[in-house]
Amino acid sequence: PGLSSYSGTTPEDAGEIHRHNLATYVDVGADILPNWYVGAAARYDRLLDGVLPAIDKAIASGIADPERLAVMGQSYGGFSTYGLISLTTRFKAAAALAGMTDWTALALGFNPSLPATRPYRNALGVSAGRLNGLEFGFQYGLPLRSTAYAMNSPLMYVDRVQTPLLMLHGDFDGAMVQQAEEFYTALERPGKRSRLVKYFGDD
Asked: Could you count the other beta carbons within 10 Å of the beta carbon of residue 160?
């Protein structure tokens, strides 16, 4: 059997897993290993901590085939997916849904998911405020005064990616669609296997 590691952020994501219709993967013989990241969501250097030990255990137990591993994640899990495939080549395929790849661009960009009826100024700095909050563990101020954003951005390590990657992103998502576009462009130019599917008018 193959093993797909679904990357979320917190146990609360368990209620969202059904949205990705994981039963479809089970129907074709895949085993699903939910993974919820423990700790600061945006710590690039800790992404492997909660994933590889679980995969190793699944392989040792005979559940997973090390030659048929895949990883998929949405939102923070998308960030984890981007990060994981730049940290390891153990996955044979990956899918990132609405994930973050460039924290600097996210912090300084507009949030397209806000209703147009709100004051326009509310679209500015919304992402930066979240990045500085405890949920991200980023308390370093604006990106121009900190290297933490770049150091924790999967885009900075895209040259290491060898895993074929499918990216799905809505252009109304709070993590702007440019996050996927940047990563796709960085993979496409050297000819690495990737595909970007954009959903217009959707988050």
From this structure: 13
